[in-house]
Amino acid sequence: MSAASEADRNKNKSEQLAGAVALVTGSSRGIGKAIAVKLANLGTSLAICGRDASTLESTKREIEATGAKVFSHVADVGKAADVAALVPAVEKNLGAITILVNNAGIGLFGPVQDKTEEEWDRVMNTNLKSVFLVCKAVAPLMIQRKKGDIINISSLAGKNTFAGGGIYCASKWGLQGLTGCMAEDLRGHGIRVSSVCPGSVATEFSGRGPKDASKVLTANDVAHAVAMIALQGPQSFISEVQMRPVAKP
C-alpha cells in the first residue's frame, strides 16, 4: 500500500463520525474519558461534563490535542438544575446533540442492612436518575430531528446479582428497564437507545476490591463497544452489548 493511500485510509477512519456531536456524561476520567477520546478520534465534536473542574479541564486539554472540538461543563447530572443548564450550553457551543452517552456512575457495595439512605440516594441519583434527567432533556431535541443515538453504560450487574451488590445492582437493573422502554418509545422517531453492559473494568471506579489487570476489561474496551454502536448503519439497531474479560476472575 502506498504512503498516499495509507494516509487516505487513516483520514477516512478519523472522519467516520465527522459532523456528529456527542455528549458524554461523567467523562473527566475512567470509562467516560476513554469514550470521549475514542469518539473524538472518529471526528466527533465532544461535550464532556463532570463534577470536578480541574480533572475536567485536564481531560479537555487531552481531547483538544486530538484536534477535536471540545466543550466542557461542570455539572452534577443527578440534579435537574444542572442538566437544565448543561444541554442548552452544549447545543449553543457545538450544535445539535446526535450522540448521547450516559456514563456517569458510582458504586457503593455491602449488605443492604449496612447501607444508609444517603448512600442509596447517591447511587440511584448518579446511576439512574441522571439518565432519566439527561434523556428527558435531549430526547425531545432528537425527536425534532428524527435521528439520534442514546447509549447507556450499564453493567452485567444489571443482569446478575451478587453478595453486597444490592444498591448497585438495583440501580443497574433499573437502568436496563429504562433503556429497554425508551428504545421502544423512541425507535419510531428514528432514535436508537442501546445499553453497554461490561463486567469488571480496570478503572478508579469504587469496586469490591483490588482487580487483577489480566482478568478485567479496560476502559478502552468499553469505548470500542460504544464506537461500534455509533458507527452502525442507519438501518441497524444494536440494542445491547454484553462484555466480559476473556479470563475468568
Task: Walk me through what this model shows.
The protein is an alpha/beta fold. 46% of the residues lie in helices and 15% in strands. The chain has a seven-stranded parallel beta sheet with strand order 3-2-1-4-5-6-7, with helices on both faces. Strand 5, helix 6 and strand 6 form a beta-alpha-beta unit. The N terminus is likely disordered.
Which properties best describe this structure?
Rossmann fold; alpha/beta; 249 residues; 7 helices; single chain
Secondary-structure element string: HEHEHEHEHEHEHE
Portion in strands? 5-15%
Report strand order across the widest sheet: 3-2-1-4-5-6-7
Q: Count up the domains.
A: 1
CATH class: Alpha Beta
User: What are the low-pLDDT stretches, counting only 5+ consecutive residues below 50?
Assistant: 1-13
Largest sheet, strands/sense/barrel: 7 strands, parallel
Task: Chart the SSEs and their pairings.
Blueprint: H1 3-14, E1 21-24, H2 30-41, E2 45-50, H3 53-64, E3 70-74, H4 80-94, E4 99-102, H5 117-145, E5 148-153, H6 166-186, E6 191-198, H7 219-231, E7 240-243
Parallel strand pairs: 1-2, 1-4, 2-3, 4-5, 5-6, 6-7
Helix pairs in contact: 2-7, 4-5, 5-6
What's a quick, concise take on this entry?
The chain is of the alpha/beta class and 249 residues long. The protein has seven helices and seven strands. The longest helix has 29 residues, at 117-145.
